[in-house]
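re the bet — no i am not wrong, look at it urself. input seq straight from the record:
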Amino acid sequence: MEQANQLEPASLISARYGRVREWTLRTSKPRLVSSSAPPGRVLVAGASGVVGFAAARHFSDLGWDVLALSRRRPARLDGIEHVAIDLADADSVRAGADRLHGITHIVYAALYEKPGLIAGWRERDQMDRNRLMLANLYESLPEIAELRHVSLLQGTKAYGAHIEPMAVPGRERNPRHQHDNFYWLQEDYLRERQAADGGWHWTILRPQVIYGEAQGGNMNALPALGVYAALLRADDRPLDFPGGVAPISEAVDADLVARMLAWSATEPAAADEIFNVTNGDVYSLRNVWPVLAHAFGMEPGADVPASLAATMPPREADWGRLVERFQLSAPTSLETFVGQSFIYADLISGYGRTSLRSPSLLSTVKARQAGFADCVDTEDMFARLIANLQRARLLAPRHW
């Protein structure tokens, strides 16, 4: 066990993962559809979040007419129409309803999380607000008759993973785990509206731990880990692992989720179905830590437990100096850049845990049988996403 806990030096990591780094530098845009007319007009609700941001860019790259919706306009959505709406405020939604004409598809990736993050997952007012947000949007659409498809996101809480050890693997055909959850409120609302209005279909995706390029989200650990790495490096320290016994889980690349959303938007086999979605492999943040260290240009360090939620916010001024030093595009405000993801990073790193919790693993057989067989190597994902954030000057550069 002692040998397994030792982290490899950067020279060995470079030898092992140099192929990953070379691969990430070869980037390409998806091909645009050949037709002069877009496949449809898709409304991406929650475009500032980790999934919504990836979805808006991917649908746009495929030639769709994209309307991005969020309270604030995200950076790096160049050329994509955006409307500022607070979905929890019915007056705000009504005021923006004149921009919602011609919607044929909805990707609903909006999410409300209460301060403190984890406790709110079981609180009724948070559940009710998330249902209300979906209802406010749907009921403000000027033309329901044009709507063809709605995509909705759930997750492993559908299997009760936040309450008790879940049956492994989680399968979509399993009966609902009996607990209050906004997933069920939103899903039931969609089913009710479909029965009443007809003419459109829905698809529900259940991803695992999502990583992506959006900033300011509550459950995207990459900006949080990037800030942590930069501050340690500024202190001339290696990348120490701050967690405890990290859970065994499955990661999901936000770009993979976006590709599945585009597939399900027009695929008959996805109509009125629920699908799990993961990268296709299994990981623990502790085991991929050397890959992250290499991507940040650092030596992997020792196990040094530290709550990022407690230790990072007091260092906002230090982060601000790094933003100025490297002329980053990232906000100097850690709340704006990271949201509540320091809390989320503590969770997925196992901070405070001294024993391995029961794993939360999902079967993706149903999606593959329906025709979606895309997958991503999780180590490659980390290297690519970190490199992309560095190129966008949202994280400190790899060499400094």
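see?? The chain has two domains: 10-26+214-251+282-360+377-391, 41-210+253-277. told u. also Residues 1-35 have pLDDT under 50 and may be disordered. so pay up
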